[in-house]
Specification:
The complex is a heterodimer. Chain A is mostly helical. Chain A is flat. By secondary structure, chain B is mainly alpha-helical. Chain B has 14 helices and 2 strands; from the N terminus they run αααββααααααααααα. Classes of the chains: A mainly alpha, B mainly alpha. At the A-B interface, helix 1, helix 4, helix 5, helix 6 and helix 7 of A face helix 1, helix 2, helix 3, helix 5 and helix 6 of B.
C-alpha cells in the first residue's frame, strides 16, 4: 500500500466512525441507563458502567401485571392490523398492477401526505357512536390507516416486476383468475409480501398518536404505556429506560435481521413516492 | 413518475387479442375489499372532516352549521399563527440538516469497507426504533443537571444549556432529535442514487486530476440531485407532520414555544374537544402541506430550466 492509500483508508474509517457513533452511543447509553440504580443514574459526572447492575429494573417492568396486558394489547393490535392489511392489500396490489390502474395509487399518495390526526377526529366520533371505545377494535381499525397503504404500495411495485408469461400460460390452460393468483402469482410474490409484512408490523408497533386518543386504561399499547410512565414517575430513570428498551427491542431486532427487506421496501416506497 | 410511462404498454395489451372484453372487469374482485376499507377509513374521514369544519362541533353539545366561521376564526387566532411559524422553522431545519448529513453518510457507505452491511444496520436503527421510547431517553439526556449532553459539553468547555427547557433552544433541540432519527432515510435514498451512477465520469475526472471535493461537487452532486429532491420531499412531508417526538418530549412547551400546527391541532381536538375548529385546522394543515410540496416542485422545475439554459 502506498502512503496515499493508507491515508485514504484511515480517513474512510474515521468518517465511518463519525457517522455511526451517534446511533451506537445513543443505544449504549440507553442500555447503561436501564441497568443502573438511581444512585448511579443521578451521579455527576455520569457513570457509564456501574459497579452493580440493576437487573431488577427489567424484572420490575416485566413482573408488573399491566405491562404484560399492554404487551398483549400491542401484539393484538399490530397482529390484527397487519393480518387484515395483508388479506385485503395483497390482492389489491395484484389487481391494480395487472389492470395498470396507476392513477388509483394517487389515493395512497394523498393518504401518505394527510396528517394522522385528521383521520382521528372523524373516526373517534364514529367509534363513540358505535360504542366501541374501551375495546381494542377502534385501534385495530385505525391502524389499518397505516398498514393498508404500505401493503398496497409495496405489492403494486412488486407485482409489476413479476413475469406475466407463467400467468398467461396458466390462463390458457383454463385456470380461473383466482387460481392464477393463488397458485402462480402468490408463491412468486413471497419476498414482496415479506417486505410488506415487516414494514407494516414496524410502523404499526411504533404508532403512538392513535393510541393516545383511543386507548383507555386497559387498552393501552406499549408506546402509550411508556409515555404514561414518563408523566407519572419522572425521576426513576432506570425502570423507565428498561421499559423503553423492552418496547423498542422487537423492532431493533427486526431491523438488524431483516435489514435487506427493510431497505428494499423503504427505498422502493421512497423512490416511487416522488 | 415511472408509473405513468409504464401504463401505456400495459394498456395497449388490453386492446390486443380476444381477451379484450374479459380482462379489465375480471381483476375487480381483487381490488374490491381494499377499496371498501380505503373508503371507510381514508375517504370517509376526509369528507367528514370537511363537513365537520363547517360546523360548531363540540363533544357534549349540539352541533350547528356555521359555514366558514371556523376558518375565519383561524385568521385571528394568535396561537395558530405562532404555530405556523414554529412549524416552518422546525420543517426547514429538519429537511436541510438530514439532507446534508445523509448525503455525506451515503457517500461514505458507498465505499467498500469491512462490516459495511452490519454498520449500515446500526446506522438505520434510529429511524426504525419506537419514537416514544427514543424520545424518553432524549428527555433524560436533555436534563439540565443530570443529562449526559451537558456533561459532554462541559468536557469541551461549553457552558451547560437548558435544551428543551428554554423557549429559545427548544426547537433546535427537537430538530437535533429529528435529524438524528431521520438522517438514515436520506442516506438510504441517496445511496440508491449513487448505485445508479455510471463509473465513466469518475474515470475521466481521475485522469484530469480532479480532487475529491471537485469530483463530488461537479459529478456526484448533479447526478444524485433527483434523489436528493425526492428525499427532501419525503423529509418535508414527515417533518411538517412530526408529532411523537415533540409531544413526548415537550408537549409543545415550555409554554407554547415548540407548539407546531400538529400539536396545536391535538390540543384543540382532544384536550378542548372542539372538533369543528380542530377539523378546520386539519383542512388548512393539509392544504399547507400540499402548498409546500408544490413550492418544492416549482423550485425543482426552475432549477432544471436554469440548468438547461446554462448548458445551451
Amino acid at each position: 500500500m502506498t502512503p496515499r492509500q493508507i491515508i485514504g483508508k484511515i480517513s474512510l474509517w474515521f468518517a465511518v466512525l463519525v457517522i455511526v457513533s451517534p446511533a451506537i452511543l445513543f443505544f449504549l447509553w440507553m442500555v447503561s441507563l436501564s441497568l443502573k440504580f438511581e444512585v448511579d443514574n443521578a451521579a455527576y459526572p455520569p457513570v457509564f458502567i456501574p459497579e452493580h447492575f440493576a437487573w431488577k429494573n427489567y424484572a420490575d417492568v416485566l413482573a408488573s401485571n399491566r405491562f404484560v396486558t399492554y404487551f398483549f394489547n400491542s401484539l393484538i393490535v399490530t397482529g390484527s392490523a397487519t393480518a387484515l392489511a395483508l388479506m385485503v392489500g395483497v390482492p389489491a396490489g395484484y389487481g391494480i398492477a395487472r389492470m395498470a390502474a396507476h392513477k388509483s395509487a394517487i389515493v395512497i399518495l394523498i393518504a401518505r401526505i394527510t396528517p394522522g390526526l385528521s383521520y382521528l377526529i372523524p373516526l373517534f366520533l364514529l367509534f363513540q357512536w358505535l360504542g366501541l371505545l374501551g375495546t381494542l377494535v377502534p385501534q385495530i381499525i385505525i391502524h389499518l390507516v397505516v398498514t393498508v397503504p404500505i401493503v398496497i404500495w409495496i405489492m403494486i411495485g412488486y407485482f409489476e416486476t413479476t413475469p406475466l408469461e407463467l400467468e398467461e400460460a396458466a390462463l390458457i390452460d383454463g385456470a380461473t383468475r383466482w387460481q392464477v393468483f393463488r397458485h402462480v402469482a402468490l408463491p412468486i410474490a413471497k419476498p414482496g409480501i415479506a417486505v410488506a409484512f415487516i414494514l407494516a408490523v414496524i410502523f404499526s408497533w411504533n404508532n403512538f398518536v392513535f393510541g393516545i386518543v383511543l386507548a383507555g386504561r386497559e387498552t393501552r399499547t406499549l408506546p402509550v404505556a411508556v409515555y404514561n410512565m414518563i408523566s407519572f414517575d419522572q425521576l426513576s430513570w432506570g425502570p423507565l429506560a428498561a421499559a423503553a428498551l423492552i418496547v423498542t427491542l422487537p423492532v431493533l431486532l427486526l431491523t438488524v435481521f431483516a435489514q435487506r427487506q427493510i431497505v428494499a421496501g423503504l427505498t422502493a416506497g421512497a423512490v416511487k413516492g416522488g | 413518475m415511472s408509473a405513468l410511462t409504464q401504463s401505456t404498454p400495459a394498456a395497449a395489451r388490453f386492446d390486443a387479442g380476444p381477451e379484450k372484453e374479459l380482462r379489465p372487469p375480471s381483476y375487480w374482485p381483487f381490488v374490491v375489499p381494499a377499496l371498501l376499507v380505503v373508503l371507510a377509513i381514508i375517504i370517509f374521514p376526509w369528507v367528514f372532516t370537511i363537513w365537520m369544519s363547517l360546523n360548531e362541533w363540540k363533544v357534549g353539545s349540539p352541533t350547528t352549521f356555521v359555514g366558514f366561521s371556523n376558518y375565519l376564526r383561524l385568521t385571528s387566532d394568535p396561537r395558530f399563527i405562532e404555530a405556523i411559524g414554529h412549524t416552518l422553522v422546525y420543517t426547514v431545519l429538519s429537511v436541510l440538516l438530514p439532507l446534508v448529513f445523509g448525503t455525506f453518510a451515503a457517500v461514505v457507505f458507498h465505499q467498500k469497507f469491512a462490516g459495511r452491511g452490519f454498520l449500515r444496520g446500526i446506522f438505520i436503527m434510529p429511524m426504525m426504533a419506537t419514537p416514544v421510547a427514543i424520545a424518553l431517553v432524549w428527555t433524560m439526556m436533555f436534563h439540565p443537571q443530570l443529562g449526559i449532553l451537558n456533561y459532554l459539553l462541559s468536557l469541551v468547555g461549553i457552558p451547560a444549556q437548558l435544551w428543551v427547557f428554554h423557549p429559545a433552544t427548544v426547537i433546535p433541540s427537537l430538530v437535533l432529535v429529528e435529524t438524528w432519527q431521520w438522517t438514515p432515510l436520506v442516506m438510504l435514498i441517496v445511496l440508491g442514487g449513487l448505485a445508479a451512477i455510471p463509473t465513466e465520469p469518475y474515470e475521466s475526472a481521475q485522469i484530469d486530476g480532479a480532487n475529491l471535493w471537485q469530483v463530488f461537487r461537479f459529478i456526484t452532486l448533479p447526478l444524485i440531485m433527483p434523489f436528493l429532491f425526492i428525499a427532501g420531499m419525503i423529509r418535508m412531508i414527515d417533518a411538517v407532520k412530526s408529532f411523537d417526538v415533540i409531544f413526548a418530549i415537550t408537549q409543545g412547551g415550555p409554554g407554547t414555544a415548540s407548539e407546531t400546527i400538529n400539536i396545536y391541532l391535538y390540543s384543540v381536538a382532544f384536550t378542548y374537544y372542539d372538533l369543528g375548529y380542530g377539523s378546520a385546522i386539519a383542512v388548512v394543515f393539509f392544504l399547507l402541506i400540499v402548498l409546500l410540496a408544490a413550492i418544492m416542485l416549482y423550485a425543482r422545475q426552475r432549477m432544471l430550466w436554469t440548468e438547461i439554459a446554462s448548458d445551451a
